[in-house]
Amino acid sequence: TPSRVAKGAVDHTKMSLHGASGGHERSRDRRRSSDRSRDSSHERTESQLTPCIRNVTSPTRQHHVEREKDHSSSRPSSPRPQKASPNGSSSSAGNSSRNSSQSSSDSSCKTSGEMVFVYENAKEGARNVRTSERVTLIVDNTRFVVDPSIFTAQPNTMLGRMFGSGREHNFTRPNEKGEYEVAEGIGSTVFRAILDYYKTGIIRCPDGISIPELREACDYLCISFEYSTIKCRDLSALMHELSNDGARRQFEFYLEEMILPLMVASAQSGERECHIVVLTDDDVVDWDEEYPPQMGEEYSQIIYSTKLYRFFKYIENRDVAKSVLKERGLKKIRLGIEGYPTYKEKVKKRPGGRPEVIYNYVQRPFIRMSWEKEEGKSRHVD
Q1: pLDDT digits (tens, 9 = 90+) for 129-165
Q2: What whole-number distance in Å separates Cα of residue 247 and Cα of residue 239?
Q3: What tens digit of pLDDT does each residue of 81-105 get?
Q4: Residue 163: which of 174, 129, 229, 175 has the closest Cα?
Q5: Exposure letters 263-286 (e unless 16+ CB within 10 A, then b)
Q6: Cβ contacts of residue 41 below 8 Å, gap of 6+?
Q7: pTM for the full model?
Q8: All domains of the chain in start order, with CATH
Q9: Three-state secondary-structure class, residue 277
Q10: What's the angle, vertex CA 101, arms to CA 97 and CA 103, rounded to 5?
């Protein structure tokens, strides 16, 4: 019938229009795919650049984004089926994953840049300058922009005194640019780690920095070097420093309680030096009165203390003790391990009837020191 023929013609016309529209869509998809592949090749080339350069938006990508915006505004409201990738995920999902990875890389680059220059970040300073004061510290030709209130919260440290009572009494003064030059001789890497102490109470030893170097910086800045403050991977070096601190405190106690009384006894008898041997609590000294040891040991003084014996067993502790004695003004200091006769084992008769006494010797620590003032002068003529 005429109506059926007319309806068929209309349907045929719609199909033709749909086919033409579909062809136009396919042609546009091919152009978009070509642009995407060209942009992905640009991204691959761009990923080989340094992270900071990769943050800059390339002209190709910007042109592609603008083209995508134009197409999205003219795209029909009905969603177009997405082409599935071999692994089952859609191409748009892969594209979004790639974009997400790219944005994550850019974010990490920016974050790492802020971490390296965290105390001189202009954006951070502009954001917080309204709520807190900022000062610029120059350490090892590096500028650190910090809030001085973190220093005054630790008033017993050097920086706490400088920006606390020191500024109040005009002792701490900036240079002509209004910047403060502090911590002379300390590297910027070490100082950056030390600034974390004022923020978190913990100093993490940076890679490539030795524990003695960090310890020297902490001593200079009057920051306590303790296990609760210092975190590092080299536990051996950290324990060595802590042992040195413990050895110094322990020897100062031994010096006052055990060694000094014997030094006073020698001084009261007119001596200007003393030789002290440290024996254990279980050692027994039994010399033959008729045949004593012939090594001048009768002038030695004895301390019976297993604790002090164990203390001097370590050469590092002997070095610490020697440094303490030097600081206290003593001279000719010798510390070591030597044989000490304890009891007579037997008596041999030499040819001619002369007896030879054999003693049992034990290896024990000894201390020898002097407080003589004129030891450099000649002993022959006064």
Answers
A1: 445 678 888 888 888 988 888 898 898 999 988 888 7
A2: 12
A3: 444 444 444 444 444 444 444 443 3
A4: 174
A5: beebeeeeeebbbbbbbeeebeee
A6: none
A7: 0.60
A8: 122-233 (3.30.710.10), 270-370 (no CATH)
A9: strand
A10: 115
